[in-house]
């Protein structure tokens, strides 16, 4: 895209394609352990499984978000037949999420840990991994100070919890998007050694113990999240058929080799520690999982419920190793790291002891949300010391508006420089492959009321192979004076259907009626609070101009749930350093 006209005049030709409300990527089960099981209705006892902590996502949303990889990543790659990051020393130790449904935190941090090890050439002195306890706690601990005080997400059915869980509700089920949003705010990643996965007694046994993490540690971090790639899904459902994509498999392989382990969601079928024998989709003789041929009446239940971390692959792993009756169409498997400890569960290691790993077929029909978490983990300090932000909810409660063709749409956040600083980068969110992000930075005068009513000091554009969370480096840093107002304007354009361009704008959401509870399904409820103040976030529509986010109309929730939401803040952050350190 070329330089935008700062006047932004033009004829309005907008066609609203859809509005998507994501509440933790299609919902969060707000229960812990057995409580989660009690909430499952209309399902036979024989079909019951224990969730690792992930709730079902929407197939419609999944296909829109992922699908085939963009053309930029379809190049033929000469991959080894077998690859294992463990052999390179690029995987942290296996851990145990018990007694909570926090697989989503373990999956995300498993990917980020591997990326950190890769950045530091493997071994790091004293590195024990990142703290899932810290991540899970603060993901549900609302902001306690500042202009966004009170913003955040919390479980919506706290009243149904047994009193023994009253001090640990933060450690509830979640999603990779909750992990992404929390880490993107620089809430962690914290070292495991600083906040270990134990209660205040040093135990993981259930009871009246407290798992509280001190508020002073909220923004303590040893790794700042910089990027999350939403990799293509190898098997998607199209017109009632499951279609396998070798290109998508290759895209995941390339990401593993270049950026480290990948988080993935899938359906874990009766494969928890303590169970014996094979089940419909899991072979305990070979420790191999594959979901295929799901009967129509089971589709509401055979959905992703667990998150693990992929550390490698084996193309020659035989399809005959899977449970008879649901064997995949071809050979090949991901090598997956679980978060159920080593115990008695999992593949044996070279010494014949449980390793904490298993095989997941390339052809698994529930495997989705392949995400590569990448961060700034260099040993000599972070690249940026300041994160200007309003969107603490981020992608965990996100409103996506999509406009087609001629109707250009943009978003902006206006910040105030905390000191004499050098602005070097901003964040951006995209959903479709090969989306372009155009960034403009304006320094604003005292009388400016809209984001582009000032001096244009930076302009850059970048196209991303994958959807996800991105850090966009400015072509040249921008010097800012203390107390100076500056605006970051983003215009995001992605390939649409039939070659048409799609403009997308991303905001947090909050209930339109000021109530705090958003009922997504009977199983997954989330209370969200967004604190959008006047003068912080703006939306631009061609032919309309700029509007403050607090003045935008509400939008209806996806799937005709009868829920209306209002706009929170735009999903834009800005990263800077003090001028004497930048």
TrEMBL record:
<dbReference type="InterPro" id="IPR013128">
    <property type="entry name" value="Peptidase_C1A"/>
</dbReference>
<dbReference type="Pfam" id="PF18560">
    <property type="entry name" value="Lectin_like"/>
</dbReference>
<dbReference type="GO" id="GO:0006508">
    <property type="term" value="P:proteolysis"/>
</dbReference>
<comment type="similarity">
    <text>Belongs to the peptidase C1 family.</text>
</comment>
<dbReference type="GO" id="GO:0008234">
    <property type="term" value="F:cysteine-type peptidase activity"/>
</dbReference>
<feature type="domain" description="Peptidase C1A papain C-terminal">
    <location>
        <begin position="79"/>
        <end position="376"/>
    </location>
</feature>
<protein>
    <recommendedName>
        <fullName>Peptidase C1A papain C-terminal domain-containing protein</fullName>
    </recommendedName>
</protein>
<dbReference type="InterPro" id="IPR038765">
    <property type="entry name" value="Papain-like_cys_pep_sf"/>
</dbReference>
<dbReference type="InterPro" id="IPR040528">
    <property type="entry name" value="Lectin-like"/>
</dbReference>
<dbReference type="InterPro" id="IPR000668">
    <property type="entry name" value="Peptidase_C1A_C"/>
</dbReference>
<dbReference type="Pfam" id="PF00112">
    <property type="entry name" value="Peptidase_C1"/>
</dbReference>
């Amino acid at each position: 895209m070329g330089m935008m006209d700062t006047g932004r005049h033009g004829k309005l030709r907008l066609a609203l394609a859809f509005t998507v409300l994501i509440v933790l990527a299609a919902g969060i089960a707000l229960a812990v352990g057995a409580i989660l099981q009690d909430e499952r209705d209309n399902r036979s006892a024989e079909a019951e499984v224990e969730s690792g902590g992930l709730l079902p996502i929407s197939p419609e949303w999944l296909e829109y978000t992922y699908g085939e990889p963009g053309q930029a990543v379809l190049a033929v790659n000469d991959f080894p037949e077998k690859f294992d990051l463990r052999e390179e020393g690029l995987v942290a130790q296996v851990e145990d999420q018990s007694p909570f449904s926090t697989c989503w935190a373990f999956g995300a941090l498993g990917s980020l840990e591997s990326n950190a090890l890769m950045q530091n050439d493997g071994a790091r002195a004293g590195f024990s991994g990142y703290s899932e306890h810290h991540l899970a706690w603060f993901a549900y601990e609302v902001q306690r100070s500042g202009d966004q005080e009170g913003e955040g997400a919390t479980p919506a059915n706290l009243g149904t919890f047994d009193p023994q869980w009253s001090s640990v509700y933060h450690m509830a089920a979640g999603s990779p998007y909750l992990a992404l949003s929390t880490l993107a705010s620089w809430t962690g990643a914290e070292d495991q050694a600083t906040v270990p996965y134990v209660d205040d007694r040093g135990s993981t046994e259930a009871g009246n113990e407290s798992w509280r993490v001190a508020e002073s540690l909220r923004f303590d971090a040893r790794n700042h999240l910089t990027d999350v790639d939403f990799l293509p899904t190898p098997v998607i459902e199209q017109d009632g058929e499951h279609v396998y994509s070798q290109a998508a498999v290759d895209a995941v392989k390339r990401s593993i080799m270049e950026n480290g382990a990948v988080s993935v969601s899938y359906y874990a079928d009766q494969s928890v520690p303590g169970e014996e024998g094979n089940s419909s989709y899991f072979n305990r003789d070979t420790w191999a999982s594959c979901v295929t041929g799901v009967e129509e009446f089971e589709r509401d239940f055979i959905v992703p419920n667990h998150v693990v971390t992929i550390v490698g692959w084996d193309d020659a792993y035989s399809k005959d190793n899977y449970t008879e009756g649901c064997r995949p169409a071809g050979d090949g498997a991901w090598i997956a790291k679980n978060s159920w400890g080593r115990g008695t569960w999992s593949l044996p290691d070279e010494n014949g002891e449980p390793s904490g790993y298993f095989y997941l077929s390339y052809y698994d029909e529930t495997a989705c949300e392949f995400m590569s978490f990448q961060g700034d983990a260099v040993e000599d300090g972070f690249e940026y010391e300041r994160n200007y932000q309003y969107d603490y909810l981020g992608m965990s409660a996100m409103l996506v508006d999509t406009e087609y063709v001629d109707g250009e749409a943009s978003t902006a956040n206006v910040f105030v420089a905390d000191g004499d600083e050098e602005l070097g980068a901003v964040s951006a969110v995209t959903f479709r492959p090969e989306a372009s992000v155009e960034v403009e930075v304006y320094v604003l005068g005292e009388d400016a009321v809209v984001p582009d009513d000032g001096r244009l000091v930076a302009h850059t554009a970048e196209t991303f192979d994958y959807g996800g969370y991105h850090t966009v480096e400015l072509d040249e840093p921008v010097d800012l004076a203390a107390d100076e107002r500056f605006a970051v304007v983003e215009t995001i354009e992605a390939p649409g259907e039939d070659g048409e361009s799609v403009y997308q704008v991303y905001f947090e959401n909050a209930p339109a009626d000021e109530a705090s509870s958003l009922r997504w399904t009977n199983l997954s409820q989330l209370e969200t609070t967004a604190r959008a103040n006047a003068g912080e976030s703006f939306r631009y529509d061609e032919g309309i101009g700029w509007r403050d986010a607090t003045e935008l109309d509400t939008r209806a929730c996806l799937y005709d749930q009868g829920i209306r939401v209002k706009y929170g803040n735009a999903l834009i952050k800005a990263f800077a350093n003090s001028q004497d350190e930048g």
